[in-house]
TrEMBL record:
It comes from Bombilactobacillus folatiphilus. GO terms for molecular function: ATP binding. SMART domains: AAA (SM00382). InterPro entries: AAA+_ATPase, ABC_ATPase_HisP-typ, ABC_transporter-like_ATP-bd, ABC_transporter-like_CS, MetN_ABC_transporter-like, P-loop_NTPase. Keywords: ATP-binding, Nucleotide-binding, Transport. This is Amino acid ABC transporter ATP-binding protein. Belongs to the ABC transporter superfamily. SUPFAM superfamilies: P-loop containing nucleoside triphosphate hydrolases. Residues 2-237 form the ABC transporter domain.
Length: 243
């Protein structure tokens, strides 16, 4: 589903991603963790072309993102993304936000689109908010709408870029429960950037630990948290547990 081969990413002179080699199979849920500034979000954003790479090869769902001829619009139909900030259209209702991409991009018939959107709202526990504007619901509810919107195009791959970082602590759990439901109930591939270690333990098949733009460790979830192999990962986890 996702293949990184010796991928390098620069911002000017700054080397943001070093020699990234990573493969993620269909149906896996992989969590990216590490200190702030380690390259986690940058790596996730290269997967749907929001960040370009300077060298190496990146293949996503049989699309080669290192090839100039690749049409990113076609790729993004199968790759959904949930951002830190919700990016909902303020002038549209919750329901309209979810229906927009299937209508414009997917040309889904209106009644079918509406039924699917309502079903997604029901799944995230917000069917009663269908006619509300984003400003009329909480941040946690807006993020759940954003998740429903990302699912509306029936993606094969879903990217989460720190989906709870902009939320008040009391709103985080509802969003995490929705993500857990998605990853456990479907064969969708998920790549999740998070600082929520308890959540990572529950939801991930694998944990990829990054530091200074490099993949330091890549292991099964239980093995990583119980027996980290590198000194840097041990140091990171000891601070998380201590604090």
């Amino acid at each position: 589903m996702i293949e990184f081969h010796d991928v390098q990413k620069y911002y000017g002179q700054f080397h943001a991603l070093h020699d990234i080699n990573l493969e993620i199979d269909q149906g896996e849920t992989v969590v990216l963790i590490g200190p702030s500034g380690s390259g986690k979000s940058t790596l996730a954003r290269t997967v749907n072309g929001l960040e370009s790479i300077q060298s190496g090869q990146l293949i996503v769902n049989n699309h080669d993102l290192s090839a100039k001829k690749t049409d990113l619009n076609i790729l993004r139909r199968d790759v959904g993304m949930v951002f830190q900030h919700f990016n909902l259209y303020a002038n549209k209702t919750v329901l309209e936000n979810i229906m927009l991409a299937p209508r414009i991009v997917g040309h889904v018939p209106e009644e079918e689109n509406r039924k699917s959107a309502l079903k997604l709202l029901q799944m995230v526990g917000l069917e009663s908010k269908a006619q509300n504007k984003p400003s009329q619901i909480s941040g946690g509810q807006q993020q759940r709408v954003a998740i429903a919107r990302s699912l509306a195009m029936k993606p094969k791959l879903l990217l989460f870029d720190e989906p709870t970082s902009a939320l008040d602590p009391e709103m985080i759990d509802d969003v995490l429960q929705v993500i857990k439901k998605i990853t456990s109930d479907s064969d969708m591939t998920s790549l999740i950037v998070t600082h929520e270690m308890g959540f990572a333990k529950e939801v991930a098949n694998r944990v990829v630990f990054m530091d200074e733009g490099r993949i330091v460790e890549d292991d099964k979830t239980n093995s990583f948290f119980e027996r980290p192999q590198t000194e840097r990962a041990q140091q990171f986890l000891s601070k998380i547990i201590t604090h």
